[in-house]
Fold these 2 entries.
Entry 1:
Amino acid sequence: MNQNDECDEEEAVVLGLDGGTTSTICVCMPLLPNLPDPLPVLGRAIAGCSNHNSVGETLARNTLEQVMMEALLESGRKQSAVKAVCLGVSGANHPKDQERILNWLRDIFPSNVKLYVQNDAVAALASGSMGKLHGCVLISGTGSIAYGFSKDGKEAHAAGGGPILGDWGSGYGIAAQAFTAVVRAHDGRGPQTMLTDSILKYLSLSSSDELIGWTYADPSWARIADLVPQVVSCAVAGDEVANKILNDAVAELAVTVKAVVQRLGLCGEDGNGQFPIVLVGGVLVANKNWDIGQKVVDCLVKTYPGAFPVRPKVEPAVGAALLACNFLIKEKRRE
Amino acid sequence: MNQNDECDEEEAVVLGLDGGTTSTICVCMPLLPNLPDPLPVLGRAIAGCSNHNSVGETLARNTLEQVMMEALLESGRKQSAVKAVCLGVSGANHPKDQERILNWLRDIFPSNVKLYVQNDAVAALASGSMGKLHGCVLISGTGSIAYGFSKDGKEAHAAGGGPILGDWGSGYGIAAQAFTAVVRAHDGRGPQTMLTDSILKYLSLSSSDELIGWTYADPSWARIADLVPQVVSCAVAGDEVANKILNDAVAELAVTVKAVVQRLGLCGEDGNGQFPIVLVGGVLVANKNWDIGQKVVDCLVKTYPGAFPVRPKVEPAVGAALLACNFLIKEKRRE
């Protein structure tokens, strides 16, 4: 008899993981059909990047194993108590990528443990919908993506292609437009803007000429995206160029959500169907004085009066854990 | 007595170099106050990249020395016949960069040889103006830049900051917009376009989903810019998305030239002053059916009736050699 089958149902747990580009977070939660509020997080651990494209396969696997064991240790449960694991991982769009990561997890857990690998946007959606896969999540952090599910399980996404492929509503997109505006003001192609002083001061550069060297010294997208708060400050102070950049980003993000809503028919045949729009990422939540997330929602409800914003109260790793619970319960019902 | 001073004036030569991002070209020409037509190129040699940012300082120096010695060998002149060297080099914007390269040349030639290092755009301008630094050159190849000189020697440039800093009229910019259009058509954010079939076929990809992997597999800008002919073909075939991308590029390039013209006052006080616009680079010259260069000129002459297009008949290395002659003759006159 397998050790796992001896485990008391009350002790059964699930693991939810958020494998982002800079860190990996794992939470351990009890496996319950109805979770109390607040959600009982039994253990939580953080580790470094687990993206195999960034750190290589061996390190990625080790990081995943380590962060799960730490979360379990903190929860005081044995590994045999784990009934399901759900990992939301950035950049895992291809079935091939997901299959590879599933195989790593398969080496760690016995075969009766249910394993799920999802795009990190799906875990983010679940963090706002409490594990229910319905509606659309809009993420705008360094990158941007909209990812949605219809009630009958169809899924669709838009954007998420990175800067070369036009994610202009992302933090990277906003900051790159601001950099461009500074260069254009400097060489006479565009109007003067407060962005020049703000960005040069923030980067400790003495002239716009130095911006080229700074920009290409390090190709990290996140390093560029870090400048978004400068753009917001200038917009709040009334700078027209900064306001245009943010308004363009709002329009772009709204178009991204609309593409998903249309393809899935989330608004119903009459266009008034109710569905959540889960807002995630620094660009959408961080700036109260120029609230990009709220403006995107304002734009969307004009077209879809049944759309309502949800700002998650729990982190994506918890969303992944909720997905693990729900996927497992569904599978059990089918069996 | 220095060996160089023995050299007969009739035998005196100059070297012109075009140090691009993929190759380095050197030509050897006679030092004459008035050059005959066609220009007498005594020797010509090609070598690999001499950009120290790409290949490192030692290799860059060796490449420069080698290509100059080969051109001299072909010309049948001795090194002592060289009176001046002008090198147009991409990315040498900072005086610090120019100083470093000057020092390399200084190690190769005796102190009486005049040495000049210029931005490659200046050599390109000279290739159209036959060595006279007046007017504006517009380059659009992988990147884009406008660089101009007024009659009284003031200089100014616009764009040239690379893709993150908004060189949207460049080959990279055009192709990146086309890629974005394919992704937008695929995920529902944008209209369908012929670009999808054209680009996927050219890249041997079976689906737009695969474009993300292809794009980020190699960060080379030139690899993206290679797709410009596909965009032109689709535009010629009537595709609206492709036509909009090219029209936007035309507008962007015209704004880039205008910024330089305005800052230098090239059009004179009455706005009708005559000045050349030298057109250089694959984007501006390669496509007769949808002539981006001609459309930029059409746009410019509406504002500046005295502007006239020049399509260089000689290569930038010859432009650099002409500059070497002119700089040297000017210095001699001053002395």
Note: Chain B touches chain A through 36 residues (CB under 8 Å).
Entry 2:
Amino acid sequence: MALYVHKYGGTSVGTTERIKHVAGKVAEARSRGDDIVVVVSAMSGETNKLVAYAREIQEIPASRELDVLLSTGEQVTIALLAMALEQIGCPAVSYTGWQVRIVSDSVHNKARIVSIDTERMTGDLKAGKVVVVAGFQGVTAGGDITTLGRGGSDTTAVALAAALKADECLIYTDVDGVYTTDPRVEPRARRLDRITFEEMLEMASLGSKVLQIRSVEFAGKYNVPLRVLSSFKEGPGTLISYEDAKVEEALISGIAFNRDEAKLTILGVPDRPGVASRILGPIAEANIEIDMIVQNNADDQTTDFTFTVNRNEYRKAFDILEKTCQSLGGRQVTGDDKIVKVSIVGVGMRSHAGIAAKMFEVLAKESINIRMIATSEIKISVVVDEKYLELAVRALHETFELEREKLPSTH
Amino acid sequence: MALYVHKYGGTSVGTTERIKHVAGKVAEARSRGDDIVVVVSAMSGETNKLVAYAREIQEIPASRELDVLLSTGEQVTIALLAMALEQIGCPAVSYTGWQVRIVSDSVHNKARIVSIDTERMTGDLKAGKVVVVAGFQGVTAGGDITTLGRGGSDTTAVALAAALKADECLIYTDVDGVYTTDPRVEPRARRLDRITFEEMLEMASLGSKVLQIRSVEFAGKYNVPLRVLSSFKEGPGTLISYEDAKVEEALISGIAFNRDEAKLTILGVPDRPGVASRILGPIAEANIEIDMIVQNNADDQTTDFTFTVNRNEYRKAFDILEKTCQSLGGRQVTGDDKIVKVSIVGVGMRSHAGIAAKMFEVLAKESINIRMIATSEIKISVVVDEKYLELAVRALHETFELEREKLPSTH
């Protein structure tokens, strides 16, 4: 008898009909003799409705109160799913975050889970019940409600799987797995049977929005095998686990991209120690998240400093940067909010030289100008003009033969 | 400096605009230097929406899960009201039932409050904050969410006022006080400045739906002065407190009525000890609430037994009663779901004979046939045909001169 944690997102529980459908799937899994804990999100649209209410009332909603408000979304779903399970003869019990002591730190709106008390849940499982837990929420040691931030229900599922030592954490979503790239951009994109945590991390952070990045980190840290699969369509999905000998050894597992980027450059800043922090400090203080950072020394005395931010924050970041430029005695601030980032990801590239060269060669052949480059051990990202996105993705997909199933090999 | 508990019902917080309006009223009260605790209901329509969801999923929703579901309604309101207060510069903090340990018994859907932990609230009040508490909900000692049943937010407000030793509990609603009778039936109905707890209890239970009966009981028990007033219109409302020398001493304070009644009679039942419980037992087991009960001995051997139930449960009660009739060897079951109850209420009648006679005389003069009579110390109720409701109320209102303001007198 195994223990599985299932997680169903907002679309999967978007109507009472869909909640009944989920109950059917959970009851079926339970009938195979396994213990099941289900984590659910708010019904799709609910969270946005609540946020809209808050904004009607307060320009920047008080963060503590926003958590009190938003956590009701998941609470509605757990009650309805427990009812749906009971209705089809499957004993079930629902719990909010505070009821199973999903204790978090007190950073409202993006809290981190500190500990989980599994006692109540294991008691219910032993009694033959399905345990339904609200995703996305926790409680501080002092008894305040917190939320884990967008996508936080995935994190809840993984954290519960880790705490309960579950055999697998199944993330049901509206896609049937992780693909080599976005099928809307490259129709020949292929579902991967397996992918490593590290690859998934790079894919997730780069815009393959299947899984929330923190949940993958968490799963990797506690070695919880994670499976992404569809709640509407049968199929094995994609298993995310640690690399092992049997994993298909492709050089590249996938191509991720991010359309929401904008690029800012401060030119001719006197090159002194601490200049990077003086440039990025005010940006960070304004709560603007920075993605890629590149620094070029223009000459001996000055340096050019470039970074990317979310396109929504381009204007705000630009204004801050102009002030910084003045105070640092820089020459000029330039920027471009019509750029995208395209990345190739794969643990295989660790042991293979020449991947980067091959990538740049393909792009050159298609006359795509590279505006920025950043690399990690298992990822190479380039920034290109927005208009080249599709072309770049398709050319790379073909070059690295991602449409073909790879058999395990020994190179 | 005084401490007031304010309670705003669903209509008063039905939109974000109205929540802002409530925030304005609360901040104004706070600015007079008093400590304020606010109890709120779910935004109007929310509870019904949630109940509809539950019914779509489960015929009879699991009671524990229904409480998890319904308690989200008030949780939304507390967060929004706290935000609205912060927005206008009035420091505020919101609490759910479990957060301030409104501990209840574990009778889901109609739990009773056992204790309240005031420590957190008094700390916040001392720190100058307005405390916003979710009405209608509690938590069991074991950590399960409960609700107090319909109108339970009033009970929460009174219980908090008692626990905090508040100077007054102000119930803001969509009417501007307690009237001598329903103004829609008798346009000359008059707002009462004061009424006693006992009178209010009789008025509430008889269908003057201004206040939930349990909250009045509670207020009486803990001697919390209760004021009913409008959240839309300025005015003193009606103060509900213990009778004191200065209270206007009317014979009759008001006329209550209830349109939702149905009457059932079991005829010719052998008159043995225990027959009443054998008749009412199965009704109670089916969770049907009984209002009036009258028993007439038809002869030495048999008895006729009549009671009233809510009209919605007439059919169900009838079926149960037919089975009981068979097993008890009764003659026949009859019933009527086109009846109403009309009651006159007043502490003044304690010391005045002839009130009942006067009531019956008025009804007789209008040719209204009385189908049942029940009396208590401060109330006389009659059941009449539905069609006579308005006529009966107006005739009684005039006879007992309720449209006239009474001055304190010494009789």
Note: Residues 27 and 90 of chain A are 6 Å apart (CA to CA).
